[in-house]
Design brief:
The protein is of the alpha+beta class. The chain has three helices and three strands; from the N terminus they run ββαβαα.
Length: 96
């Protein structure tokens, strides 16, 4: 089950459980749409994979399966991830 992390790992923007701005990679690295798609150009700076919109958990399921309250805040040095982005951004995520 997805953790539904409460914020962007890079800029710390709040991403509530019903946010349509939350993007995740296959390892659940969580970023806001602006960081994931504009800054990192659909290349996860942690694993090199692509992003997809995080699904919204139905309200009825949140009581039994609450979202995580743990904030993961690990801002990236863009100059350090730039090489990874340049290598991967032109390759479709399913081909990386």
């Amino acid at each position: 089950m997805l953790e539904l992390r409460p914020s962007c790992e890079h800029c710390d923007k709040a991403l509530p459980v019903n946010s349509t701005e939350a993007m995740i990679c296959t390892f659940e690295c969580t970023y806001c749409k602006e960081c994931a798609m504009d800054l990192f150009q659909n290349v996860c700076p942690n694993c090199g994979g692509g992003f997809t919109q995080r699904p919204v958990r139905p309200k009825g399921a949140l009581e039994k399966y609450p979202a995580s309250a743990v904030r993961v805040f690990k801002p990236k040095d863009i100059s350090e991830v730039e090489k990874l982005i340049l290598q991967k951004k032109h390759i479709a995520p399913e081909e990386r």
